[in-house]
Amino acid sequence: MSLQKDVWWAVARSEEVTSDKPLSVDIGDQPIVLWRDNHGIARALEDRCPHRRAPLSLGCIRDNGLIQCGYHGWSYDGETGRLKEIPNMKDQQKFPPVYKATAFAVSEQAGFVRVCLDPKAEAPASASPHYKYSGTANVSLRHQEYLDALYDDPSLLIAIRAVHFTPYLMSELHEQGGRLVMERSCQWKTPHWPAHFVAEFPLTLLTSTDPVSGETELTLRDDQAKELLHAVLAPVPAARGVTAVRWRAELGERHAGIRGALLRGSNPLSVLSSIDGTKLRTTKPTVSLHGEDLRAELRGATHDSSQPPVDRTVAA
Amino acid sequence: MLEVADRPLQTDESPTTRASTPISLNAINRWVPHDIVMRDSWFPVAHNYSVTGKPVRRAIYSHPIFLWREDGVVVASEFHPNERIARDKSVYTDVKGHYPTMEHYGVVWVWFGNPQAADPVHLPSLPFLPPKGGLPKHMTATVRFESSAPISLENLIDLTHADFLHADVVGDERSDSETVETFYDSETVTMVRTLVNKSVAPVMKFFSGIRQPTQNVRQVIRIYLRSHCAIAYGQFNPGDDVPLFHPCTPETRDRTRMEMVMNTSNAGLMFRHVMPKAGYKVSRQDSYMTSPQSPRYMRHTDRKDLHSKFDQAGQRYRMAMMELAERQEKGDFAYRDNVSADCSDIIGLRKELFQF
């Protein structure tokens, strides 16, 4: 798939990127290897050794912070991608500038490691705090389909402890500050009248989506406008039409009573890896019907349409 | 005629200096081995003990081959004897759908190409194997690779990966000196790597009882381009002479079968039995890299592979394969060099150890 080159994608949670073992991720068809160098800085290179095209993620991280290909031991610097060492070359370790792996820009904020395919891109400003709960799910849905499902019925993709999503919206999907925003009515899961008999809903789920990356902030509020849960869902288009979702969440204010206590149990948010195909197929597109158009409109307004060149031999 | 590969291969931009060679270095560094299909060649498809009265299935470039014996003689057919034939016979077999076949070196060979051109004179020379076979089964193994045959052979001729990927079997890269020489003709590429005071291979330390910290090593890789067969001959001092028949038969364009034979007859009892089994471990280590590597060579890319001085033999192998493939593409299937001539001197075989 073609992707905008200037987007910062949250391809990993901070704790997933270590100096012990390289991490293989991808943005669309572009394989990327992540690791931390000896200064603790997250680095990203194309997951392809330019020598014999082996995935660098099958190699190791050396004590000096270089990543070493597992095939012939060529070692690369994470910041520039430059080749630094070939085993057996002894004192002849000087290489022409063309001897380098493709390096990508990396930014680490709020517990996410973000990568931009444009190595010269400026790191985004982020005010998001570092949330305590986190996870990763790989979902067999394309990126746009993932967002469509999130808009049409979030229960296809996520579960909030003790909370039931209703099909009723308090605010349709609209543009607000350059983001796609909507608000859905929710109920507590404990015994209650079916949604259509209920006059007042005790909860709402506010979602605010970046139109380009699809990164979505979720806020669960009660009827007293208390913010009970905050979460960030970062879907990234990955190989073979999979969407890799990294997420972080944090509990907010306490809602009084047993229902509030249930929400505060362990893991208030779950992001599902497997999708109920039957439920997905029979979920009628509602919000997403104009959501895709709105997203395309906002995306067009904020980004040009230049596409990065993708080497199909790497995607294999 | 055997030539020495003395052309510098240090930079990407160096133009080829061999007047008769139309293949540029740029092309070599962007080669697509998946597209290379060789024909008019003998391919080793089975150990002779694997072929009995009951048909076994093999393939060359996805063309089916069924092997069985009739009155002790091997039959190689593109149809199973019980098959309800619903497809046309290929051009690679005779009127009965049989491939030319022969048994030699304890291996069943099938001729893939024009059946009229099949000739034992085109069988690769493997002077360390008894012509009539008969080595014990424990010196043989069958290994499969999920990669194209040229990728597997490039892996073999590139010995620097061995010090790194197979260090736990063959020892690490430490040595006092290392020289690599490459020889080639139109049908073969041969590399000789000489190492002085190299770390002793762990497998020899444990199973040959070598106590010294280092050993001198001479490693020879000789590849028969057309049949995708190779000889890997290691001479270790102190240590043993270990010649290996390392065929990479392209059952499909990206799946490779290796009916390997390692003649460890002259080694000690333990080493003799254990070393051939190391092939299973080494091949898994190779597959760990070549399996994800191979699909990245299935399509053309504008990006060139980088290389070091250690890749000279591999570069030569790529060039020789591309030259031969190009010749075959133009309809020229003639052998310009004799592959069956005894190569003992070329590989430096200590003949006294391998008398048959």
From TrEMBL, chain A:
Record carries keyword Ribonucleoprotein: no
Record key words, sorted: 2Fe-2S, Iron, Iron-sulfur, Metal-binding, Oxidoreductase, Plasmid
InterPro entries xref list: Cholesterol_7-desaturase, Rieske_2Fe-2S, Rieske_2Fe-2S_sf
Rieske domain location: 8-115
Single GO MF annotation: 2 iron, 2 sulfur cluster binding
Signal peptide (UniProt feature, chain positions): none
Transmembrane segments: none
UniProt name for this protein: (2Fe-2S)-binding protein
Organism for this UniProt entry: Novosphingobium resinovorum
UniProtKB/TrEMBL annotation, chain B:
Domain Vanillate O-demethylase oxygenase-like C-terminal catalytic, chain residue ranges per copy: 147-327
Alphabetized GO MF terms: 2 iron, 2 sulfur cluster binding; oxidoreductase activity
Polar residues bias (residue ranges): 11-20
UniProt feature, compositional bias: Basic and acidic residues: 1-10
Pfam family, one: VanA_C
UniProt keyword list: Oxidoreductase, Plasmid
Coiled-coil region list: none
Region (Disordered): 1-20
PANTHER family in the record: 3-KETOSTEROID-9-ALPHA-MONOOXYGENASE, OXYGENASE COMPONENT (PTHR21266:SF60), IRON-SULFUR DOMAIN CONTAINING PROTEIN (PTHR21266)
Protein name per Swiss-Prot or TrEMBL: Oxygenase
Provenance organism: Novosphingobium resinovorum
